[in-house]
Amino acid sequence: MGKPNQTVYFDDLAEGDTAPEFKIDKVTRSHIVRYAGASGDFNPIHHDDPLAQGLGNPGVFAMGMMSAGFLAHMLTDWLGVGNLRRFNVRFASRVWPGDSLTCSGRVVAKHKEGDDGLLDCELHVLNQDGEPVIIGKASAVLPIRNAQSTDS
Questions:
Q1: Best label site of 14, 18, 57, 147, fewest CB within 10 Å?
Q2: CA-CA distance, 25 to 101, in Å (whole number)?
Q3: Distance (Å, rounded) from C-alpha 14 to C-alpha 112?
């Protein structure tokens, strides 16, 4: 994956190019508890097995935003934090302790607007069975290599 301070140029990416995958080999209860502390989401359905089971679940499950955070990590490592303009996700399935996740992205459209290159991407988080956990979209504005400035 790219380094956080590495400049990514519009010219270096083509439609169909894919992001380096970001993988979580096994979601643990520690991931869930640490995310709860960081986000302030202490809903007991994410840490109390008897309560989660009483509500018809096999046990506790991860917050959807935790998986979205993994996806955002992959996206910003790929395109750069300051370049991201839009990030939308749809939660497709729950993530259970023990699940493995793969975050991926693909460029679906490119166009220029002045000295900027605009990029649209589709995003996915899949579990170990290849089932979608999150489906998303993102847009980024990337610098164009050797773009002529319109400033005087």
A1: 14
A2: 7
A3: 13
